[in-house]
Fold Putative creatine kinase, flagellar-like.
Amino acid sequence: MRRVFSRFCEGLQKVENSIKSKGHSFMWNEHLGYILTCPSNLGTGLRGGVHLKIPLLCKHEKFDALLKEMRLQKRGTGGVDTEATDGTFDISNIDRLGTSEVQQVQCVIDGVELFIKMEKALRAGENIDHLMPMSLVDRPTAPEPDKIETIETSARMKIPTLENHLRLPQNDKCLDTT
């Protein structure tokens, strides 16, 4: 994908130079970036997509949340508003505005690499929770306050405090922070 992106940039630069040689330029706004025919493409206008066959991952209960978390979108391989066939999707960046072209392409690369790892793990019958972003990991709920066991402190038990860990030693090379 990096090589494709490099070739794309080289080709785009040639097109832009040709347009400039005729006294024209692409429409650009300091706040919105490139102005294109579709408002959803304001900014970079870049949609970097990869066709990816992930028949098991796409059925996972957290797949849509995973896409959202990773700032990616799925389409069928026939384009906008098409269905995926055999679990094959066009995976691309959602963002066009607020991030650079390089960040957008890297987002797709990172997502595709993770999706491939997840699909392989699912094919092997493994759980993929350890591969999920932390925001999507199910965390155990906290126990009710009346069910929490308390620890009695006594002279036999010394519990370190944060203050003890943060206090710097005092000598001629250290500042006294107390």
User: Anything to note?
Assistant: The radius of gyration is 26 Å. The chain has one domain: 1-135. Residues 153-157, 159-170, 174-178 have pLDDT under 50 and may be disordered. Helices lie at 2-21, 63-69, 101-123, 162-166.
